[in-house]
Amino acid sequence: MNGLHVTTLTCEYRTNPLGIDVKKPRVSWQIESDKRSTMQIAYQVQVSRTENNFNCPLWDTGYFESDQSIQIVYEGPDLSSQTRYFYRVKVWDNYGRESEWSQVAWWETALFETTEWKAKWITPDPEELNPALEPVFLLRKEFDLKEGIESARIYATGVGLYEISLNGERVSEDLLAPGWTSYSHRIQYQTYDVTDQLELSNAIGIMVADGWYKGNLAWEGKSNIYGEKRGVIIQLVVRYQDGTEQVIITDESWKASTGPILYSEIYHGETYDACLEKKGWSNHSFNDFNWNNVIVIHIPLSKLVAQENNPTRVTETLKPQSVFVTPAGDTVLDMGQNMVGRMKFTVDAQAGTKIILSHAEILDKDGNIYLGNLRTAKQKVEYITKGEGTEVYAPYFTFQGFRYVKVEGYPAKENGLLLDSFVGEVIHTDMTPAGEFDCSNPMVNQLQQNIQWGQRGNFVDVPTDCPQRDERLGWTGDAQVFIRTALFNYHGAQFFTKWLRDLEVEQLPDGGVPFVIPNVIDGHSSAAWGDAAVICPWTVYQSYGDKRLLEEQYASMKAWVEYIRAQGENEFAWNTGFHFGDWLALDAKEDSYFGATPNELVATAFYAHSTQILRDAARVLNKTKDVREYTDLLEKVRRYYSDEFVTPLGRLAISTQTAHVLTLMFDLVEGKVKERVAKDLNEMILENDYHLQTGFVGTPYLNLALSNNGYHETAMKLLLQESYPSWLYPVTKGATTIWEHWDGVKEDGSFWSDDMNSFNHYAYGAIGDWMYRVVAGLDMDDSEPAYKKIKIQPTIGGREMTYARATHQSMYGRIKSSWKITHEEVRMEIEIPVNTTAQIILPHAKIETVTDNGVSIGEADGVLEITQIEEGILFVVGSGSYQFVYSNDRGLKPIYSENSRIIDLLTEQETKQVLESFIPGISNPHGVLAQLRIHPIKKLLENPMTKMTDNRLVKLIDALNSIEWELDSIIQ
């Protein structure tokens, strides 16, 4: 049987997308092979209007010689709207094999032209139903159909948030539709397949809430930012088997009312009175005689675009871990995880019972629920029972950021609050998971989980800064520092495509970029924030090979660089205007948010960085004139930077960690000066006892700057630092997401100021990029995007870690880089997907000692080139799975305390059980386990976190030794 197969067909990043308005969609596929070093040499794509007949395809590439298997542009005849197209792929490889045809996949187009919209925007008649009312509006319409339905599609959107029901059932699991765009310019519409929900007599019902469109946004209490009236537009197209078509639209014939949702706001929560439910309101034959009329409102149809981003959905459910009563007497649920979403509950109570849920991220030092950091956001849900048996409720048009839920009014049970009555529903943009990371340090593993949970909680249709307080805005600076980490962990091409299109339309005429996208506050064009216009499209291109988006955003990228160029009197410096600088850096003056690194240095450094990216984008897009222009500009900006900020003796004049980090990362110095800057940065860290002082600008690059310049051990110690300030300090405090402040919770249990203290704020999670690329060693060669050329180069010379693994589902398939070190050997497991190659460096290895699955590396199948270099072995491999083993005889000695060898024989859970058994009341078993693995006993005793007495420690070691003896006896 042929061992070559085409799998995982996608169109515009999606599997079988319903309702796209891309007129030349791109298709991609992956390949599976039973041979190593398999490369595609040719492909054939066929597109047909029928699923089972490709004899006369609409488009057929024929045998097309190419190694490209992603972003293949459809070049056939013009597509029709509201039409499903089927496609299949076959490939040929470098072994002379031809695959079978893939399984058939499809895409379906939506509405290409505004003239295809027959529906009208409607809203309740303001003479009958005040548009300023808080209750959610209900809109309905009945209609009849004939026999022989072949297909039915709803095309719908709203100004405000909407939810559609057809014959009493929701048409989709999507939430918070149509999402948040720059409504003044762009409004997404959604497509729903409702074929199976239709009957001969039907009713359609829509709920419409304020949402982002006219609800309360930002901290100044603004509402009605985009408009004062909620509205919807819906077009239901029914096609019959006889070829005829029937269209049901929103128009003046609809009816409107209010219902049980009395109040619903993004920040503040929802009030639901079940006594006001209108039973059967979205079913046929409901009596709407007393309902109000609707009117048509004018919103330009030219604003409508088909859904670009993944929808927002419930992606996971969490059960409460415990229920307890606080010192203040409150009954509180602990979800065990700082999450974003909503609480769903069941209740059986007499009519009129009011249940109130208040959501918080954290408890104060006394153990009471803490709401101070919400500022004006209420995050409160109220439900009033109707008293007709078991009732089930979850909020509709709001979401909360929380771990703890204060419950008031829930009927008392014999055993207190029933945990089984409550479930947490995790809500975020439904992105496909892409990356994994784990290592020998359980606290770092918790950090990785915190990074991922922080991303999930803040990717709710836009990349928000926080999900709990009265903000939740698409801050550009946060997005650009985190985007590479984000795109490793989740497939986010569609997410950022949609957001960048909003950035482009919000960009000012002079090229300035607002602080937040969509823009709902005053202010624009801070260095490192506005640079999102350049950094984000380039990073999407690097991760996915999305040349179309790069071309689309190029004018915006160029406009931003030209905006900088026009500032001040010197076109090669940026020394004017407002800047956030190194926001929240620890070297700031007391009571200041602004770090000590001068704004001019930060701004000019990012000026150079964005100019370099723009120049590189021009190369990709073959804009030769711009390549020349921006190469010249880059050289002159770098020269100014050096003249201004580097002393004649080659030392950086600004003595902050961030100044040194940016200078190194953005290639602003070279040669001996670069060596001096790196050395000085390392000494700063050493002098500060392996603690950082960086803020939003310097932190994302800090460890990369150290590792890339020969100071990886310092970078590792920074990562593993547990005392404040450090990445692991919040972990020692029980954090399950990334904090906004290094000391969001201080050592004494008190908090940073209520004004700005989010416990779910992903920016500092950008450390993940370094963990994946440097620690685990999974990286890409920038010469070809989307991991077409892979770099595997783990840095395993550090002494603090014995194992690390990263995997990433690239456009080509799964990549894996895993290493483990013992006293005797180094073991690496590597996976390279078909149609890619990888350059691998095995540190401190010798060619003659390395084997792959027991075979000498020189004879291993798939190894294409081998070179002995100073760092170890450099070689190139093709696709396949590899297991390299070589002797650990060149100094790769991990730190082992006298008990760490014992711990290595146990699972984490077993060791945790021992710890908890012999150290009653231990506050942080994960942290102690990490200490046991990497520190000698003496250091362990000195660490106040463990709170061990000599006697307890002896008992612990005896217990671990006894387990080791048992394991030894089993092995023997």
Automatic annotation (TrEMBL):
Which residues are in the Alpha-L-rhamnosidase C-terminal domain?
A: 782-851
Q: Which Pfam families match?
A: Bac_rhamnosid (PF05592), Bac_rhamnosid6H (PF17389), Bac_rhamnosid_C (PF17390), Bac_rhamnosid_N (PF08531), Ig_Rha78A_N (PF25788)
Signal peptide from the UniProt entry? none
The domain of life for this entry's organism is Bacteria
Stated EC number for the protein is 3.2.1.40
Where is the Bacterial alpha-L-rhamnosidase N-terminal domain positioned along the sequence? 149-316
Q: Which residues form the Alpha-L-rhamnosidase concanavalin-like domain?
A: 327-428
Class of enzymatic activity (EC top level): hydrolase
**Which InterPro entries does this chain map to?**
6-hairpin_glycosidase_sf (IPR008928), 6hp_glycosidase-like_sf (IPR012341), Alpha_rhamnosid (IPR016007), Bac_rhamnosid6H (IPR035396), Bac_rhamnosid_C (IPR035398), Bac_rhamnosid_N (IPR013737), FN3_sf (IPR036116), Ig-like_fold (IPR013783)
Give the UniProt keywords, A-Z: Hydrolase
Record-given protein name: alpha-L-rhamnosidase
